[in-house]
Amino acid sequence: MKKPSLFKNIPDKDVNNIIYAIKDDKYWKVSEQDKRYYYVIILSRGRTPSFRGRFVRVTGFKAVEADDKIAWFCRKYRVGIVDAKEKRLIGVLTWSAFKRLIQNGEKILGLIRNQSLPPYINKEAVTNIIRD
Predict the structure, then answer these.
(1) CA-CA distance, 84 to 58, in Å (whole number)?
(2) Residues in CB range of 104: below 8 A, 6 or more apart
(3) Distance (Å, rounded) from C-alpha 14 to C-alpha 23?
(4) pLDDT at 3
(5) What is the spatial distance between Cα 46 and Cα 29, in angstroms, rounded to a whole number?
(6) Rounded to 5, what percent of the chain is helix, strand, coil?
(7) What is the rounded distance in angstroms from the CA atom of residue 91 to the CA atom of residue 118?
(8) C-alpha dihedral, 114 to 83 to 33 to 24, nearest 10°
(9) Among candidates 36, 37, 35, 80, which has minimal Cα distance to 58?
(10) How far is the C-alpha of 34 from the C-alpha of 14, rounded, in Å?
């Protein structure tokens, strides 16, 4: 079986973690203090149109909506940040960025509240977020 391109730079242990998270329909809180925002695994590309953008399938919430700008970054096995109250995808992360940010929930929560969360966060963006 061909390995998805998103798994190229990820260790096998992390690939297994992603697969088990999908099987168990897992999601994680962005911050322990705020139960509105969650990390989820993205399961679709976000091609189906909706009234407010595109539908994206994710773990834990089945389907959420995303703006076209954010839906463009959606790929299977990436991590998304979902606003549970509005059922909207508000950001997309790579797995390596997620692993670094899961321990720094307050920094991400600050970006979300200031409405300065970038639509796509990779390793380089995480370095800037954590450093600030």
Answers:
(1) 12
(2) 129, 130
(3) 14
(4) 64
(5) 22
(6) 35, 25, 40
(7) 7
(8) -140
(9) 80
(10) 26
So what's the pLDDT on residue 12? 87
Mean pLDDT by 10 residues, the chain (132 residues): 68 89 94 92 93 94 94 94 96 93 86 93 89 76
Q: What is the radius of gyration, based on Cα positions, of the chain?
A: 14
Residue 35's CB is within 10 A of a number of other CB atoms, namely 11
Name the token pair of 61.
Answer: 């919430």
Contact 76/104 with Cβ under 8 angstroms?
Answer: no
Q: Which sign, positive or negative, has the C-alpha torsion 19, 6, 98, 44?
A: negative
Threshold 0.85, pTM exceeds: yes
**Position 10: which residue type?**
I
- Predicted confidence at residue 1, as pLDDT, reads 52
Tokens (6 digits) for 22: 């999908």
- Residue of 120, 45, 55, 98 lying closest to 75 (CA atoms): 45
- Residue 59 tokens read as 């773990």
Q: Domains of the chain (ranges plus CATH)? A: 30-131 (2.40.50)
